[in-house]
Input
Amino acid sequence: MIRVVIVDDEQATRNLLKQLFKDYFPDVQLIGEADDVASGVELLKKETPDLLLLDIQMPDGSGFDLLNQFRNPGFQLIFVTAFDKFALKAFDYNAIDYLLKPLDPKSLRKAIDKIHRNSDRALEPRLKGMMDMLETRQTQRIALSSAEGYAFYSLEEIVRLESSGGYTTFFVADGQRTTVAKTIKDYEELLPEDMFFRVHQSHIVALQYVRKFLKAENGQALMSDGCKIPVARRKKDKFIELLTKYTL
Output
């Protein structure tokens, strides 16, 4: 059973979540709710939830203000938000779960299932990465959730990505690799366009780690780790253009 607390200033959102829990989630027990930051902090000091569903913008502050009151939170977290695009990117980069309003049972089920799988994963380092990113408005590192735990990499360390089915493997400069259960398209949309380029349906490369463009076999990118990555014919001209700009 997952013990849940909701902190959201919108009564309609809280009511919808409670109804969804009742109709679709017999494994969820709602143990409390609050409608602002102050009452949310007090509630979380009294209760010990497994999961906090947290709004970002509230009348007396933000969800981030609430989180700052808990140095080592013992709960998992899902933001419930209609927040700006950069904040959503910060969540993605740091493997922080979120639900976009208006809510629906399918997305809530997916988030709850993920909490089940990651119940033993520490939240604090991911929160710190998210807060740092929101403060600087810069994407500096990424958190990758795998079967073994979370791997944290600077964007500068990532050499390339390779997909297989619904999984993506990250290869980094020190030889490590991490496989995550997300598609390469998810990361194509997330990673900065001035640093990474999808050269093939199964490959994204970091431009700084491309050593040569080889004409053999319709075009290949020779990477710093020695791998030769195929370049799709329709991607070749754009890739060469980006490489030229990147090395100027």
